[in-house]
């Protein structure tokens, strides 16, 4: 099977659109269409189907996508391994972090690493914890930083705990809860909270804690960004349970106020994860060792 054709197939799968894929590949649309037809003839299976203007993968297409990702991950590992024999300071690392770690923890670590190894390219994505695990398992990433309970994560991952956070309830100075000594957990479930999307480690831990008390979470508003949640709370839209790491500045400035919740203490763990069976490039090995030393 032609590797260039597989690369084109992965772009079509990524963009779900022939024209966008052809622009990214610097090929004509008919050329990409012909590649897709050639692949389907080769495997004797339909790989894509049209849903309006969008293209989606068939089951066979998803199977091919999974194996193609593994093949190109191995190709990159091979290139990095050979490059490391020439120069240990070269290479590329693909890393993803959850929003909390990616915005409030990772920048200082990346700055120090890049100062020591300026020719190692860091390709960093900010994703929720669930998506990070999926991309680690499908070979798209070298490493991931996730927040929350890792006991339910799938097998095949090497997991290294490195830090404990705390989830706290915050409100604006104008909120009716401001100034209270504490509130009951039951008050959090009734359309009071601005929360992260499903798949977020913070939301998962909050829902688990409330569920253990038979309290269903009924969000006031759902957002995918911590900064947006903070601004909503500061402007009086609602309250939020957030990582302490993300609101330290606002607590000091008085923009937000912490309100204790009776009997509720949630201390999520931040963990560094990778596939157990992934052969790391020399550059990735260097970053892994550096991260462990830096975060201890």
From TrEMBL:
DNA-binding found in the keyword field: yes
Keywords: DNA-binding, Transcription, Transcription regulation
GO molecular function: DNA-binding transcription factor activity; transcription cis-regulatory region binding
InterPro entries: LysR_HTH_N, LysR_subst-bd, WH-like_DNA-bd_sf, WH_DNA-bd_sf
PROSITE patterns in alphabetical order: HTH_LYSR
Family: Belongs to the LysR transcriptional regulatory family.
PANTHER family listed in its UniProt record: HTH-TYPE TRANSCRIPTIONAL REGULATOR, HTH-TYPE TRANSCRIPTIONAL REGULATOR CYSL
Protein known as: LysR family transcriptional regulator
Organism: Dictyobacter arantiisoli
Upper taxonomic lineage: Bacteria, Bacillati, Chloroflexota, Ktedonobacteria, Ktedonobacterales
């Amino acid at each position: 099977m032609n590797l260039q054709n597989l690369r084109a197939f992965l772009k079509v799968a990524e963009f779900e659109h022939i024209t966008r894929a052809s622009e990214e590949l610097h090929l004509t649309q008919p050329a990409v269409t012909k590649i897709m037809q050639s692949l389907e003839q080769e495997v004797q299976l339909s790989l894509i189907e049209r849903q309006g203007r969008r293209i989606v993968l068939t089951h066979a297409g998803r199977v091919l996508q999974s194996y193609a990702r593994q093949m190109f991950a191995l190709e990159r590992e091979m290139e990095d391994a050979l490059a490391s024999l020439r120069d240990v300071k070269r290479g590329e690392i693909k890393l993803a972090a959850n929003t909390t770690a990616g915005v409030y923890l990772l920048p200082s670590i990346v700055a120090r690493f890049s100062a020591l190894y300026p020719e190692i390219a860091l390709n960093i994505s900010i994703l929720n914890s669930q998506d990070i695990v999926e991309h680690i398992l499908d070979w798209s990433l070298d490493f991931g930083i996730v927040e929350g309970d890792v006991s339910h994560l799938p097998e095949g991952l090497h997991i290294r705990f490195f830090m404990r956070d705390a989830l706290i309830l915050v409100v604006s100075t104008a909120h009716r809860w401001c100034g209270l000594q504490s509130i009951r957990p039951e008050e959090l479930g009734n359309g009071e909270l601005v929360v992260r999307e499903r798949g977020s480690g913070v939301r998962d831990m909050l829902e688990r804690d409330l569920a253990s008390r038979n309290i269903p979470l009924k969000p006031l508003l759902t957002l995918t960004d911590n900064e947006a949640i903070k601004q909503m709370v500061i402007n009086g839209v609602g309250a939020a349970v957030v990582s302490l790491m993300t609101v330290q500045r606002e607590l000091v400035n008085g923009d937000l106020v912490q309100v204790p919740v009776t009997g509720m203490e949630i201390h999520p763990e931040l963990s560094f994860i990778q596939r157990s069976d992934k052969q790391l490039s020399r550059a990735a090995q260097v970053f892994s060792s550096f991260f462990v030393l830096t975060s201890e």
